[in-house]
Write a structure and sequence with these properties.
single chain; about 170 residues; mainly alpha; two-stranded antiparallel ribbon; 6 helices; 2 strands
Length: about 170
């Protein structure tokens, strides 16, 4: 049974002896454009998103597992006795902000999962590309390559060679 890798536009057969999962995968510029368009459409559906500075992020109270329970408890208490709320707040605004937080949390979970998978794919493909480039560089050290491609070998050696250790 042969495995195949797919994108939304193409299926290319995987080499049977390859352990590299992206062997033969092609993502066309059209697919990249479609994904970017969908991401931008999703951004347009959301309310204006803030750009907080690092300092602003550090100074804000964080809503975590424990504090989320505190918020729910306080909101339940306010629903039981709306008179405890300051005049500037209403039960409707509390409910609205709680729903907004839950919706944004769900979106963030999905976006984080996508971002993690994208990051893993970038790491894997980058590592593969580097290892292939390193193999090519090693091939330049053979006598045949030295004779055929001295300019390319000299360029790669000069541009990307590791620094030598100084002997003292």
């Amino acid at each position: 049974m042969e495995e195949s890798n797919t994108t939304s536009t193409e299926v290319i057969e995987k080499q049977p002896d390859s352990k590299y999962i992206f062997e033969g995968v092609v993502i066309t510029p059209e697919v990249v454009t479609q994904v970017v368009t969908k991401i931008n459409e999703a951004k347009a559906l959301l309310p204006g998103m803030p750009n907080l500075t690092g300092l602003e992020r550090r100074r804000m109270a964080k809503l975590g597992t424990k504090t989320l329970g505190f918020v729910h408890g306080a909101f339940e208490a306010a629903q039981k006795d709306p008179g405890v709320l300051p005049g500037s707040l209403s039960l409707e605004s509390l409910k609205q902000q709680e729903e907004l937080y839950e919706a944004l949390s769900l979106l963030e979970a999905h976006a984080s999962d996508f971002n993690a998978k994208l990051g893993d794919a970038l790491l894997l493909t980058g590592s593969w590309n580097y290892s292939v480039a390193l193999s090519i560089y090693q091939m330049f050290k053979t006598p045949l390559a030295k004779a055929k491609m001295p300019e390319q070998q000299a360029y790669l050696r000069q541009r990307f060679a590791r620094p030598t250790k100084k002997k003292e």
